[in-house]
Design brief:
Elements (H helix, E strand, L loop, with lengths): L1 H46 L36 E2 L8 E4 L2 E5 L11 E5 L3 E4 L5 H10 L7
Antiparallel strand pairs: 1-2, 2-5, 3-4
C-alpha cells in the first residue's frame, strides 16, 4: 500500500512539474511571439516609403480654374448675342442673349413642368454668375440700384 501511495505521489509530482514546464514554455513562446510581432511591425513601418505618403482625407493641390473676366463696356460699343461685358470694373459680368423663342421647362422632372414656349422680342443681357454682395453694394453706391435688401 505504501508503495502504491509513493508511486501515486511521484506521478502527481511529475505531472505537476510537466504542467509547470508546459506553462513556462508556452509563456516563453508567447512572449517571443509578441516580441517578434512587434519587431516585425516596426521593421515594416520603417520600410514603408514616407515620401508621397498622405493622410486620408487630404487632397492634392489643384490650381483654381482661370475664368477670363469680361471686358468693361466702352461707350458706343455695339454688342451682339453671346458677347460678354461689364458696365464698370466692379460690376457683375453680363452676357447678351439673343431674342427669339425658347422652350422653358422640361418633361423629365415634375418641378419643371409644364413646358412653355417663351418669346423674347429683343436681345437682353443677363448676369453670367450670381450677383455678389459687393457687386450689389457697388451698384447701390453708384446710384444704379435703388433697392437695398
Amino acid at each position: 500500500m505504501l508503495h502504491r501511495w509513493s508511486l501515486m505521489r511521484r506521478s502527481m509530482r511529475t505531472a505537476s512539474f510537466e504542467m509547470l514546464d508546459r506553462d513556462a514554455s508556452t509563456r516563453h513562446l508567447s512572449g517571443m511571439t509578441y516580441r517578434t510581432l512587434s519587431l516585425a511591425v516596426v521593421v515594416v513601418m520603417l520600410a514603408l516609403p514616407l515620401k508621397g505618403a498622405s493622410a486620408q482625407g487630404t487632397y492634392p493641390q489643384i490650381p483654381p480654374k482661370v475664368i477670363p473676366q469680361a471686358p468693361v463696356l466702352k461707350p458706343g460699343q455695339v454688342l451682339k448675342p453671346g458677347d460678354m461685358f461689364r458696365d464698370c470694373a466692379s460690376c457683375p459680368e453680363m452676357v447678351v442673349v439673343p431674342g427669339g423663342l425658347y422652350q422653358m421647362g422640361s418633361k423629365q422632372d415634375k418641378s419643371e413642368m409644364p413646358v412653355r414656349i417663351m418669346r423674347f422680342r429683343k436681345p437682353f443681357a443677363i448676369g453670367r454668375f450670381e450677383t455678389l454682395h459687393t457687386e450689389w453694394q457697388s451698384c447701390v453706391d453708384a446710384g444704379g440700384c435703388t433697392h437695398n435688401p
